Amino acid sequence: MREVGTVDESDIILVFCPVVSRAGTDIDQALDIFNHNTGSKLAVLVVLHHTFDKEKMVPDSSRCVNRTDILTVDCLFYEDTGLLKCQKNSDAVDKVVNWLRQQVFNTMLHKIFHLKNTSLLAKVNKVNVILLCLSCCLKCQTVFIQML
Questions:
Q1: Backbone angles phi, psi at 99, to 5 degrees
Q2: Which of 7, 36, 64, 141 sits a CA distance of 20 to 30 A from 118?
Q3: How many CA atoms lie within 13 A of 73 on its CB side?
Q4: Beta bridge partners of 18
């Protein structure tokens, strides 16, 4: 995975959305920004729930997103420490990794079978991402990317 500077250069967009008011309202705001800036790119929406409790139960934010081109995951973070080391965050990273692998695999199959150009395989293995962050959240996005 390689971070790029523009949406046009990216294959996938990572959108980080800290919940500051109500989850549904903040997610709608993130989706509005996504809709206006990204066209038809695939995306991962990382919803950041503020807490110090590693066991906190949070609502499944994917229920607020009705799009098949966006994977939504929930993570826990605290303002002083960033992303918490917890099972919920580990599960979110695993879900994103598996989804990214599937997207790369689907792209590779499309290029092999539809374009019949196997020389493109080398390009498919690198996924270009761009980060969209709705507010500062102690470099949660950097830590999340490193975990991938």
A1: -65, -45
A2: 7
A3: 23
A4: 48
Q: Rounded to whole angstroms, how far apart are CA atoms 55 and 89?
A: 11
Going 12 to 13 to 18 to 23, the CA torsion angle's sign is negative
Neighbours of 106 (CB within 10 A): 12
Tokens of 5: 């500077």
Residue with tokens 């919920």: 88
Identify whether the C-beta of residue 123 lies closer than 8 Å to the C-beta of residue 4. no
Radius of gyration of the chain (CA): 16
- On average, the pLDDT of the chain sits at 80
- Tens digit of each residue's pLDDT (9 = 90 or more) over 73-121: 999 999 888 899 999 999 999 999 999 888 777 766 666 666 555 554 4
Q: Which domain holds residue 85?
A: 2-147
Please say whether the beta carbons of 40 and 71 come within 8 A. Answer: no
